[in-house]
Amino acid sequence: MIIRWCFICVFAVLINKVCLQVTGFIGGSVVLPCSLTQHDLKPQDINVLWRDKDSETIYDLVEGEDSLESQDPRYKNRVQTFPKEYVRGNFSLKLKNLTHADAGEFTCFITHTSYSKHETVQLLINKSTVKPGNQSTEEEKHVPETQSGQMTILLICLCTLLPLIILTPIIMYFIFYWRKKSQAAL
């Protein structure tokens, strides 16, 4: 019974998909974050594959080099990366000229010589549009900081796991209590 309950708790945590949300405006641009905690990387040892909700190719970085041959035509001339940030583990990309069709999940797959990882970003498109001449906010003009994305992920994980960590011992106590009580009644 206890093992079953623990399995249910662990399963609930695992299916609770942690993903970042980014909001953009029609005609504007957004930065989709993707980073590694490891720094001082050799770009030639890394492959980064960005895919959209339909598994279409947005951008590929293969052994440190751009590979746009398989890029979906919808993303041609709409994607900007930050090559100087690669050595810091930052593989975020900027998606420009947003449309309603861009809304949905984007996944960044990172493979390194020693490990792999993926991050999912949910892009929400606001119904408002960006005024001409104001294509991006001041925040979007700067290169995204890897550390702020990591803090967001950490905060989401803490908010998801903390209630489980607190409630599990309480639930376990009541399970043992009711089990002892029901055995004593027999």
From TrEMBL:
GO BP, one annotated term: T cell costimulation
Membrane-spanning ranges: 153-178
GO CC annotation: external side of plasma membrane
Main subcellular localisation: membrane
Keyword Signal: yes
Compartments it resides in: Cell membrane
Coiled-coil regions listed in the entry: none
Membrane topology field: Single-pass type I membrane protein
Domain Ig-like: 27-122
Leader peptide range in chain numbering: 1-20
Alphabetical keyword list: Cell membrane, Disulfide bond, Glycoprotein, Immunoglobulin domain, Membrane, Receptor, Signal, Transmembrane, Transmembrane helix
PANTHER family: BUTYROPHILIN SUBFAMILY 2 MEMBER A2-LIKE-RELATED, T-LYMPHOCYTE ACTIVATION ANTIGEN
Identification of the protein by name: Ig-like domain-containing protein
Organism: Onychostoma macrolepis
